[in-house]
Design brief:
By secondary structure, this protein is of the alpha+beta class. It has 5 helices and 5 strands, in the order H-E-E-H-E-E-E-H-H-H. It has a 5-stranded antiparallel β-sheet with strand order 1-2-3-4-5. The termini are far apart. 18% of the residues are buried.
Length: 228
């Protein structure tokens, strides 16, 4: 009788330990699934040649001026009613009293939406980064605020300037913001060019007529390349 009682008691203890182990395992799995992945603060790199892209918008807010840049490919996609493509980088120069103080960068990559900072909303596949005026990474900036702010623009693919992309006239792309003496298409200085007419007199063309001839020639090359 004692032997039977001892066997029954041992079986109860074994079952109890098994149940506890199973519960602990489930708790561990639940915890690991709920923990957010570690956010890579340096995933978005500084886009070195961003200013060679399209300066499609200027926003003035009191003493603050913002210059927005992106690729022609991104603007064409938006104007054709397509999603902003993966690989798009939008760069915002932020000037305070005409001094460059910050450079804000947002970049879209397929799969990046799974990597937002903890306790921040997912913004599609966009991640954000803040740089100082000297292009060094601003580690003091709370990058989570960028996610919270842009989350309100879900309808516009989490961007604040989608309207400017839609309305921008790509034919007006210039190589320089100041185009008085530069080609409006390629940023080529033209003030020292000497252009002669091909008539019998070979007269020197004045500056205004010279500028027009050069612009027409470059425009022809530009649209020829576009059609190619």
């Amino acid at each position: 009788m004692k032997k039977l009682l001892f066997s029954a008691l041992a079986l109860v203890v074994a079952l109890t330990l098994t149940a506890c182990n199973n519960n602990n395992t489930n708790d561990t799995n639940d915890t690991s699934q709920q923990e957010p992945s570690e956010y890579d603060r340096e995933l978005v790199k500084f886009p070195d040649n961003y200013d060679k892209g399209v300066n499609y918008a200027t926003v003035n807010r009191g003493n603050v001026r913002e210059e927005a840049y992106t690729s022609r490919k991104a603007i064409e996609a938006v104007q054709n009613g397509q999603p902003i493509p993966s690989g798009t980088v939008i760069t915002l120069e932020i000037y305070e009293d005409e001094e460059l103080s910050e450079i804000f960068v947002m970049e879209k990559r397929t799969g990046w939406g799974d990597q937002p900072p903890p306790d921040t909303p997912r913004n599609g596949d966009w991640l954000y980064q803040e740089f100082n005026g000297d292009r060094s990474l601003d580690y003091e900036e709370d990058i989570g605020r960028c996610f919270t702010c842009h989350a309100n623009q879900e309808r516009d693919d989490y961007t604040n300037t989608l309207g400017e992309m839609k309305s921008y006239e790509l034919e007006d792309v210039t190589g320089s913001k100041d185009s008085n003496t530069e080609s409006r298409l390629a940023g080529i200085p033209t003030e020292d060019w000497e252009v002669k007419s091909l008539d019998d007199n070979h007269k020197i063309i004045d500056d205004e007529e010279k500028e027009g001839m050069i612009q027409n020639t470059l425009t022809t090359f530009y649209f020829h390349e576009e059609k190619s």
